[in-house]
Write a structure and sequence with these properties.
The complex is a heterodimer.
Chain A lengths: L1 E14 L8 E15 L4 E5 L6 H8 L7 E6 L2 E2 L5 H11 E4 L11 H10 L9 H14 L15 H14 L4 E5 L7 H18 L2 E6 L2 H4 L4 E6 L2 E7 L6
Parallel strand pairs in A: 3-8, 3-9, 6-7, 7-8
Antiparallel strand pairs in A: 1-2, 1-4, 4-5, 9-10
Chain B lengths: L2 H55 L3 E5 L5 H13 L5 E12 L4 E12 L8 E3 L13 E5 H7 L6 E4 L2 E11 L7 H4 L2 E5 H7 L8 E7 L5 H8 L1 H6 L2 E5 H44 L1 H9 L4 H38 L13 H26 L21 H22 L2 H31 L7 H8 L8 H29 L10 E7 L3 H10 L3 E16 L2 E2 H6 L5 H8 L2 E5 L7 E6 L14 E6 H7 L6 E6 L2 E13 L10 E3 L1 H4 L5 E7 L3 H14 L4 E4 H54 L4 H38 L8 H28 L2 H9 L1
Parallel strand pairs in B: 3-8, 5-7, 14-19, 16-18
Antiparallel strand pairs in B: 1-9, 1-10, 2-3, 2-6, 2-9, 4-7, 5-8, 6-7, 11-20, 11-21, 12-13, 12-14, 12-17, 12-20, 15-18, 16-19, 17-18
Helix pairs in contact in B: 1-8, 1-10, 1-11, 1-22, 8-11, 8-12, 8-15, 8-22, 10-11, 11-12, 12-13, 13-15, 13-23, 14-23, 15-22, 15-23, 15-24, 22-24, 22-25, 23-24
The chains are: A alpha/beta, B alpha+beta.
Chain lengths: ~240, ~850
């Protein structure tokens, strides 16, 4: 489902805190020649200390950024061959996201937040408004928020916001779901609830799941753990054989 | 582009942003209201002039001459007489004194002596009604403008003494073709039969009489005839007016007034646009995370731009609609305020064209203002959804930004030229606005650079924090300085220009200024009139001989050669065609100043000289394209007179004195046929009335004008212009206040986040208030100082170079405006900080987390 070859990412960092004071720049290698393969239906966790390049790798795998070197093939499409619009179309069609800080639109209700990915689907898959509403409502019901569909994010607790985020992530029935520290902003108990919910829904939909996390409990539920250190794959831990 | 997604997102965002957009929109709406209102007013006047021009002019063609029509002219008009659709009207007009024996009051009137059918178009409305049909049925009866009855305190049925003959007033004329504005106030009309005028003996050699003819003609004949006879008309010094020309003249006169008002409105619109731009910038900045999320789940850059451009379009349309609503009360007020300045009675309504203009202008201006920030959104990296520190939008130069800047500049230039109706003035206006914004931006950037390089380390913690907020990332120093500084700039400039221009226009305010003008005094009557004045205690302040003349050549080239040139400048054509009132004196007067050349030495000129020295008023010399040493030829009472320009004068036209464009030495014109004009001062109204009465009896041909009436009318007119301008300035001020609120709201949103962090870390609320207040005070001081300074420069440029008047900066007013702006800005800014400080850290953290 995902094949990454020789992924390298370097950023230019400005030295000094003032552009006008003769700032200089130096290249910072965040990711260094990473090769990786994620199979369909597999649950992969990317684990590593802060600054090891986890989030950068996730961004590159999802086509949110272009690598300095290397390429990613996602759902049969080479990301380097796609322009910005092409990558956006691919994300709308095949990818779902769960964010650490939820990223719900504050001006939209829970229901509307979940409807957004449905509205972004390509025309041939895009449901009618009534159907999109029904799907979003059903997803919110599945995450236990049937009574909060018309609430705004500010009216929801952190756990509830992340439930909305999960419902939104599954709305477009993605082939791959990327989760960036999905429990990072939540307490233990709520984090466990969210993890269970995520894995339950994933089991129902058979989605390929790539998770970046610090959470060891969560990582133990994956098929494989990719340990990153200093921008390189340190080791790969296989925990369970995925169902064929 | 995914239209359904875009539509849904616009609808959802609108729901949340409606209140904020209300504030941003109100900035724009006020400018739109002014533009729409003036557009509607101009449209209504144009329509009324179009509809009523025939009855206003009273005919399809009007010819007017100072001399009776000569044989050649009569031959030329004979085809008109044959083809006319109704009997032609002949009118003889002249100014004369009228004495009411009942009230013993006298007044200068405009005698309109009629032969034939009058009016050809339109109606004469009388009181008692329908009396006009009796006009001409018997001699000795006159119809007078109703204002005259009031001025002389008489009634219908009373008699008026005109040139020694008594006439009964048959009716008061409420409305008749061919007059509007102040004319009736200065010289009310008296309609009489031509045969009655002949009986009065008022028309004598040298009297200032106009001979007019009116025709009702088949369509198009007036234009073809005047075109075919243009040379003859010019040579015979016969002026003509067709309906089409009259429409143009009337519309043009009014358009000139609305153009100035329109520029004030445009400045309000530009100001509103800056407010919208500042608001949209903050709005967009708050949307970065949301946009990054949308991008990460598949929204294309085009979708994002479409959503937020769509929002801007909704804002523009709403602001336009609000502007049109605001226009309604303004429209109800303006006709009353402009009063006599309107050439016709109008009923104003906001038509489809005005609505389309308002909505279109608002939509376009809002989209232009929003274009830069919205295009930035297209460049928000989706990776920002994962890493907030990633992909801060770089507001540097991009093709989109350059395009937006070009579109803003081009639109501003086009709108300015359209509103000013003149490329030079429009371009100057646009350039002035751009330069002002540039200077304000430069001042803001300069302050930021200075404070960053030399932070005031000696200050207390709160003061250092407040000052540092001005140059920290995401500061709002630049937009706030521009918005507030520009608001003050517009209001202060309009005020300074208005004060200077109106002060200059306000006529002589000396307590002993002349208030009584006597003209048409014949040479043998001068001593008698002077004695009469002395008997009534009137002080003779000035007197000058008047000789009528026309220019016949410039620098040896005949007048007709110049006039044959179709590309001749308007000024030169005016200078060649007008009738001059020449005078002569040996010494410069108080109201004159020599600016070039030399004044002749008295006694050195002889009547027999082949060429006489003359002194020209400087602006006239510019119009004629002559200077010291150039030759001018004059036709004076049928005699060719050669002159050489030996000096140029600047004349203080605002001074109540006998001021002239052209002055000759006495030797040159002393023997020419002439009349004399005398200026006198007599304070008491009753004494003036008695003197006028006696004057009418003793010198029936002499006209006396009580200038207090004219001065009063002029004051009213200036007051009307002043009120109209002040009203528009008030609207500009309203825009400034709306911007102030919008800018404070933006600042509040930015600073609330930082205040929250400081509060969590233990900062007290008073400390937070002081930090925010410090920032607001420095910003307010900068905006007020630069705005006021720039307005003084702009007002100086406009007054000196556009109005060509001396500039006297109204320093106290400027300081007052700057101080008021400073206080209001600092207060609003401080309140913004206070609001952030009042929220509990817990609630703010929760809001922030969402």
């Amino acid at each position: 489902m995902i094949v990454a070859r020789n992924l390298t990412q370097r950023y230019s960092r400005h030295a000094g805190n003032d552009e006008s004071e003769g700032a200089s720049s130096e290249a910072l290698t965040v990711l260094d020649s990473v090769d990786l393969e994620v199979h369909e239906g597999e649950v992969v966790v990317i684990l590593g200390p802060s600054g090891s390049g986890k989030t950068t790798l996730l961004g590159l795998l999802a086509g949110l950024d272009r690598p300095t070197e290397g390429d990613v093939e996602l759902a049969g499409a080479s990301l380097s061959s796609l322009d910005e619009d092409g990558r956006a179309a691919l994300r709308a069609d095949r990818i779902g996201f769960i964010f650490q800080s939820f990223h719900l639109m504050p001006t939209l209700t829970a229901l509307e937040n979940v409807m957004v990915p449905l509205e972004l689907l390509p025309p041939e898959r895009r449901p009618k408004t009534a159907d999109a509403t029904a799907t979003a409502r059903s997803l919110l019901e599945q995450v236990g928020l049937s009574s909060r569909v018309n609430h705004y994010p500010a009216q929801l607790s952190g756990g509830e916001q992340q439930r909305v985020g999960i419902a939104r992530a599954f709305a477009n029935q993605p082939a791959v779901l990327f989760a960036d520290e999905p429990t990072g902003n939540l307490d233990r108990a709520t984090g466990d609830e969210i993890t269970n919910l995520l894995f339950d829904l994933n089991a129902q939909h058979g989605t390929t799941l790539v998770i970046v996390t610090h959470d060891l409990e969560l990582s133990r539920r994956a098929h494989r753990i990719i340990h990153l250190a200093a921008g390189q794959v340190d080791r790969i831990e296989v925990l369970a054989e995925r169902a064929s | 582009m995914n239209a359904r997604f875009v539509g849904s997102m616009i609808r959802r965002e609108l729901r949340a942003a409606a209140r904020r957009f209300g504030f941003y929109g109100s900035c724009m709406a006020i400018g739109i209201a002014v533009v729409v209102c003036l557009h509607s007013l101009r449209e209504a006047v144009d329509m009324a002039v179009d509809l009523r021009s025939k009855e206003l002019l009273g005919a399809d063609l009007r010819l007017e001459s100072r001399d009776p029509f000569g044989p050649e002219m009569l031959a030329a008009i004979s085809p008109l007489e044959e083809q006319a659709l109704a009997e032609a009207t002949r009118v003889t007009r002249l100014g004369s004194m009228a004495l009411a024996e009942v009230s013993e009051r006298s007044r200068l009137v405009d005698l309109v002596a009629i032969e034939g059918n009058y009016p050809i178009y339109g109606e004469v409305w009388t009181e008692p009604a329908h009396r006009w049909s009796e006009f001409g049925s018997e001699g000795g009866r006159i119809f007078v403008d109703s204002t005259l009855l009031l001025q002389l305190d008489i009634a219908v049925g009373d008699t008026l003494l005109l040139g020694g003959e008594r006439f009964e007033i048959a009716a008061a004329v409420k409305k008749a073709p061919g007059s509007f504005g102040l004319q009736a106030e200065v010289a009310p009309r008296v309609f009489m039969l031509k045969s009655d005028l002949d009986r009065t003996g008022l028309v004598v050699e040298g009297s200032l009489v106009s001979h007019l003819r009116y025709w009702k003609l088949p369509e198009g004949l007036a234009e073809t005839w005047t075109e075919a006879n243009e040379t003859l008309l010019e040579d015979s010094r016969v002026r003509f007016q067709t309906v089409v020309g009259y429409q143009e003249d009337m519309s043009e006169a009014f358009t000139n007034l609305t153009r100035y008002l329109g520029l004030v409105g445009l400045a309000a619109l530009v100001l509103g646009s800056i407010g919208v731009a500042a608001g949209v910038r903050v709005f967009v900045r708050e949307k970065l995370d949301g946009v990054a999320m949308l991008r990460s789940i598949g929204a294309s850059p085009r979708d994002v731009v479409a959503v937020y451009a769509g929002l801007a379009a909704c804002l523009g349309l709403a602001a336009g609609a609000l502007g049109i609503l605001l226009c309604l009360p303004l429209i109800a007020l303006l006709p009353g305020l402009l009063g006599d300045l309107l050439p016709v009675e109008v009923s104003i309504r906001i038509g489809p064209a005005a609505i389309a203009t308002g909505l279109g202008l608002s939509l376009w201006a809002t989209l232009l203002c929003a274009m830069g920030p919205v295009l930035d959104l297209a460049r928000v990296a989706p990776l920002r959804a994962l890493r907030r520190d990633f992909g801060e939008v770089d507001a540097g130069a991009t093709r989109g930004r350059w395009g937006a800047s070009f579109a803003v500049a081009a639109s501003l230039l086009l709108a300015s030229v359209w509103q000013a109706g003149n490329l030079r003035v429009g371009a100057g206006f646009a350039l002035g606005l751009v330069a002002t914004v540039g200077m304000l931006a430069l001042a803001a950037r300069g302050l930021v650079a200075l404070l960053r390089r030399h932070p005031p380390r000696f200050l207390a913690y709160w003061a250092r924090q407040g000052v540092a907020n001005l140059f920290r990332p995401r500061n709002h120093t630049l937009p706030t300085t521009i918005a507030i500084g520009f608001a003050l700039f517009v209001v202060a400039t309009v005020h300074s220009v208005q004060r200077n221009v109106l002060d200059q226009m306000a006529v002589d305010t000396r307590p002993d200024r002349p208030n009584f003008v006597l003209f048409d005094v014949q040479r043998d009557q001068v001593d008698g009139v002077q004695a009469l004045l002395a008997r009534h205690g009137a002080g003779l302040t000035d007197q000058a001989p008047l000789i009528a003349a026309r220019l016949s050549g410039i620098k040896g080239v005949s007048r007709s050669v110049f006039l044959a040139d179709e590309d001749l400048s308007k000024e030169l054509r005016w200078g060649l065609q007008r009738e001059y009132r020449l005078t002569y004196h040996d010494e410069l007067r108080d109201s004159e100043e020599l600016v070039d050349g030399e004044w002749w030495t008295p006694g050195t000129v002889s009547a027999n000289d082949a060429s006489y020295p003359v002194s020209l008023e400087r602006d006239l010399a510019n119009s004629l394209g002559v200077g010291v040493g150039d030759a001018l030829s004059w036709r004076i009472q049928g005699v060719e007179v050669e002159t050489t320009v030996t000096s140029l004068r600047q004349v203080d036209w605002g001074r109540m004195a006998t001021n002239f464009f052209v002055v000759f030495p006495p030797e040159a014109l002393a023997s020419a046929p002439q009349s004399t004009v005398l200026l006198a001062h007599l304070a008491e109204e009753e004494a003036r009335a008695t003197m006028q009465r006696e004057l009418v009896g003793a010198f029936p041909n002499v006209s006396a004008l009580d200038a207090t009436l004219i001065l009063r009318s002029l004051d009213t007119m200036l007051e009307q212009i002043g009120i109209a301008i002040q009203l528009l300035s008030l609207f500009t001020l309203g825009t400034g206040i709306a911007i102030l609120i919008a800018a404070s709201m933006a600042a509040r949103a930015e600073r609330a986040r930082e205040s929250l962090l400081l509060r969590v870390l233990g900062a007290s609320r008073p400390l937070l208030r002081r930090i925010v207040a410090m920032e607001a005070v420095v910003l307010a001081g900068l905006a007020a100082t630069v705005g006021a300074g720039l307005s003084a420069v702009a007002a100086w440029l406009v007054v000196v170079f556009v109005f060509e008047l001396p500039f006297d900066p109204p320093m106290l007013d400027l300081l007052g405006l700057a101080f008021a702006t400073f206080v209001v800005t600092a207060l609003f800014g401080g309140l913004g900080g206070a609001t952030g400080a009042n929220e509990s850290p817990q609630a703010a953290l929760r809001r922030e987390a969402s």
